[in-house]
């Protein structure tokens, strides 16, 4: 039977198969001359499709000076679907989004195909169906191209989707819109926490905000010290290429920014040759492309020449995190092909610091803020996994 694994109670009819040309009328977008962009009517293009859960006029990045005829011919109104016509990757070509603004219209660009709503369907539901595996497989398997992949109106017209009655479509749409709002709210909460932390770091390290000791007194004047005086800096050395491995029985190899995410080391590749090593608790910092990304490691690992290990306190970790946030490494980086810093640059970096007790108090405060943000990120991951599971179970 054409029914999903997960279903709301009260619905038992089979889902019907339809071709997209029964639901949508397709058209390619505007190709205006370069002087026409940057003003005029809101203009939907590639990034609007890729970067939004749904499209509203206020979220659209670009604009174009369009004639009255073009405004009529290329109008995008509530319920219309927008497809990515061309992409460098097969995975992205034909991805769609939906226009849900009921008050304002827009127009669309030449790298976009509009599907004009010509039948009764729940727009958000159809967008979800079209970005699910069955429809995506139909589109990507027929996409043409070598360096770029393309889809046309004829390919989209022949795509078949399975859809329930409109009442069930609306029920599913409402569910996912509510779930998406929860995800958006959680993302906003995380962003606010991170902005608050950044603001507090700015105040702390500029000494605008001073912590007190247990007796309410000052911790004393801060001193400027070189990083090499207060921490051990170990520059990485890459193993030979033939010793790289995907076997997790070997030693984790940390090569650069790709091996770090959200302040943590993410094991990705391994090595049977040990060159330079880091220990649990070390600060890992990328020394090129880009410079200054940091993570705390909880494992012993081999470090390649794209990183260094800094054996120091949590105060140093937070200061380096702040130093990276304000992009201060840019003034020290060197190299024409990619940015880089050397061991001397790192060891001679000036670290402003209060007494050890003051450093501990600052580090403790900032660590608590970081832990709070991490917990909120974990909640976001749970919501995103729930959405993924529902999507897999509710669409046939």
Explain the overall architecture.
Belongs to the type-I restriction system S methylase family. Keywords: DNA-binding, Restriction system. Residues 14-195, 221-384 form the Type I restriction modification DNA specificity domain. The protein is of the alpha+beta class. The chain folds into 3 domains: 16-163, Alpha-Beta Complex (Adenine-n6-DNA-methyltransferase TaqI, Chain A, domain 2), CATH 3.90.220; 166-214 and 354-396, Helix Hairpins (Orthogonal Bundle), CATH 1.10.287; 223-353, DNA methylase specificity domains (Adenine-n6-DNA-methyltransferase TaqI, Chain A, domain 2, Alpha-Beta Complex). It is 34% helix and 23% strand. It is built from 10 helices and 24 strands. The chain has helices at residues 46-51, 68-73, 123-130, 133-142, 153-157, 166-205, 227-230, 314-325, 343-347, 356-394; strands at 16-19, 24-28, 37-44, 62-64, 81-84, 86-87, 96-98, 107-108, 112-117, 149-150, 160-163, 223-226, 232-235, 244-245, 251-254, 260-261, 264-265, 269-271, 276-278, 283-287, 291-296, 301-303, 307-311, 350-353. The strands form 8 sheets. Strands 14-18-15-22-19 form a 5-stranded mixed beta sheet, with no helix packed on it. Strands 2-9-5-7 form a 4-stranded antiparallel beta sheet. A 4-stranded antiparallel beta sheet has the order 13-23-20-21. A hairpin with a 2-residue loop joins β16 and β17. α3 crosses α6, α6 runs antiparallel to α10 (356-394) and α8 (314-325) crosses α10 (356-394). The radius of gyration is 27 Å and the shape is elongated. The chain starts with 15 loop residues before the first strand and ends with a helix.
